[in-house]
Each structure stands twice: as C-alpha cells, then as structure tokens.
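Bug report

Summary: structure tokens for HTH-type transcriptional regulator YofA differ between web form and batch submission.
Environment: batch mode, default settings.
Steps: 1) Submit the sequence below via batch. 2) Compare with the web form result.

Sequence submitted:
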Amino acid sequence: MDIRQLETLLRIVETGSFAGAADALCATQSTVSARIGALERSLGVELFDRSSHRARLTPKGQELLKPAQEIVALAARVRHQIGNTQVLTGTVRMGVVGLVALTWLPRLMSAVRDRYPGVTVVLDIALTAALIDKLRDGEIDLAIVTGPADEPSTSSVPLGHDEFVWIAASTLNLPTERMTPRELARWPVLGLSSQSHHYPVIERWFRAGGAEFKPVISCNTVRVLGDLTLAGLGVSLLPRHSYTAEIAAGRLTVLNTEPRIGPVEFVALYRTSATNPLTSAIAALATEISEFAGNL
C-alpha cells in the first residue's frame, strides 16, 4: 500500500468512476485500475463493487475511506510544509469565470509556475453555476467564481469585488442625463446568458424599474459581450475596471443610470475535505494576485 494508491482511491470516489479519476490524475485508466488492483491485493479485500456503472465502495472500501483521507492529507501537508516548493508535484484542476480569465489569470498562473514549477494546473473556463456544479461533483479542485457562495462543505476565500456599470459605445450617442431601467430598455440591450450570475441581477433591476429585460443578443463570455458593445450593437453591463482604457479613450461611455447595481464579489472555493494543500495554497496566492478592489 502506498500514497499514490490511496490518492487514486479518493479520486475515484470524488469523480464516481475510474475514467474520471484517470482524467483528474492525468493518468491512463489502465494505470488507475492497476493501482487499485495492487491496493486490493495488499489488503486482501475488494474495495470497489464493479457490478454497477458508477464505481461504488464495498463495505471494506467504506472502512478504508476515512483513514485514506487522513493519510493522504497528512502526507500532503508534510510535503507542502517541510518540502521544497520547487520540487513539489501534483495536479490542480481549477475552474475560472470568464472575467478573471480575461484579466489577471495569466499573472496568477505565472505566480503558480514560479512558486510550484512541478505542479500541473488544468484550467476550465466557464460560468459560475457550472463551476460550482463541477466542484460539488469532484470534477475540479478549486473554483474562482462570483460570490457570495453559500455552498455546503466548501471553504471560501474572498478575492475582492468589481464594479459593474451600464456601458455603451460612444457612437450610439445615448443621453447623458440619468436613465431609469424603463428608459434604458428603449435601447438594444446586450446580456450574458441566462446561466450567468448577472442574468437574474439584471432581470430584477429592470423589473423593479417597471421594465422587462429582453436582451437582443446574449452570450456566455464577458470578452465577447465587451466586443459587441464596442461594435455599437447595444448597451451592456460590464466591469468598469476591465474597460478603463476604452472609457478613457472615449470609445466607451459609462451611462448615468439609477438605481446603481451593487459591486460583484469574487471568491475562491474549494472543498473543505480537500486532501491536497496545494488547493488552499493557490487560493491564498489568488488573494495576492487579484486585481479586484478590496481583496486584501
């Protein structure tokens, strides 16, 4: 019995299959099967019921689960606290929302490479709801998403907030006086998809102002939404910080709307039961790198 075998067992439990564990460990499915087979032979018991499609632990496998978590967590802490970070190895599967990918993600990845050159990061860029589902299902280890996040059995690290404002291309010549949701709705509105964090926020904003949110174009990435706005196709709610240069150059105009939409919080989430301390270490590193306001 060795640490890799126990780590493999835990990945199978997290992902629900040998194939899922292979993807998470960047290994082949045959390697995963071989490790579990060797572990079973060393203990003289079967750990998984292979009669069903989803990998299920046998009663003996259930008995091993908690000790395996403790052993793997202890070994990982020893490597991280005592070992040289330059020689640490492992894989961290990290989900990131589009706004972070658009702005300071490259700086975070550069910092991870400098501090942990032997660590592999597998990135997944998606909307907050999808990333939280993947974190819950064990498909990713760490999620940088919009908050607040009241997700059971997870630890949340605050990364600051960004101000979102209504913006339009200057060529549209929108009114400079204050506009209500009903007045803004007279113009073509662009929006993120209905699965995004912002969709219900914008929907409530329009509804409270006696108007209906009817985007003429929807997409699932902030970058595309910004490009469409720059092209003069409509007004959209965008992060002010990310478009400072375009606003300063006069290409985009911040609209004077009332009421204001509050700042959006961002957090790093990981499962409280995570056995890999690299997950919490990268979450902490994200607080140092984050370009959002109030992240310290």
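Above is the batch result. After comparison, the two runs are identical; trailing whitespace caused the diff. Residues 86-162+264-296 form a domain with the D-Maltodextrin-Binding Protein; domain 2 fold (CATH 3.40.190.10). The mean pLDDT is 88.
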